[in-house]
Amino acid sequence: PAEPGPRPDLTPEESRLIASWDRDLDALAGELLLARRAVTDVPLPATLTATQLLRLAEDPDGLAQELARPMPRPPQRAARRGTRFHAWVESRYEELALPLLEPDELPGADAEIADEEDLEALKEAFERTEYARRTPYRVEEPVQVVLAGRVVRGRIDAVYREGEGASATYEIVDWKTGREHTADPLQLAVYRLAWAEQQGVPLHAVTATFLYVRTGEAVRPRDLPGRAALERLLTDESGTADGEGDVIQRAPRV
Questions:
Q1: In this structure, how many other beta carbons lie within 10 angstroms of the beta carbon of residue 56?
Q2: How do the domains of the chain map onto residue ranges?
Q3: Could you point out which of 125, 140, 238, 248 has its C-alpha 20 to 30 Å from the C-alpha of 99?
Q4: pLDDT in tens, 190-242
């Protein structure tokens, strides 16, 4: 269609400016329509975090978006609180813990901490749980496991051991400080497999638990997937291909 003529109430400069805006909008609309019709192949990294593996299983398109265009995230109060709670739990077992961060080194510590009372409530709630009276075998333990040719890394909050030698059994525990009971058992499955293989023990010798600290509820999911099921998340059954050229096919969101 023909462009509208100049408006009598605008100066020539204003008319040209508005016309340039119209052209920019047309160009952006064209790019948007093209993007909606396109499918982008996003390379899957050779090393993933356990969180990224969970994201791949739950929302591969969302993970592809994050990998294709990583964006910084602002500090979250819940994340700061969780970090401080983990540091406090470590301090209860100083001989086992990794070096603690100083308060001014914690993420977001330069911002105002508005949930100090909530953190104290979490500490008191933890003291009422069975785990407050048990001594962990390991805390904040880094682990990794190779799945379908890719390294998946994570950090286990606490490991408890019963027995010695070949008869020893282990319980992996992940502290959850949020209010929602929505943790994905896939996280425990990854940690369980990684710990079992790292320790050279059979998978059935390792159990895994989410402790929802606020309520003291210990959730032990049954039938956690093993290696074969976890590797299927990284094969062509989940939209990826096995090998160095693995990709996630992503239809861009609008």
A1: 22
A2: 1-33, 90-99+119-238
A3: 125
A4: 999 999 999 999 999 999 999 999 999 999 999 999 999 999 988 854 444 34
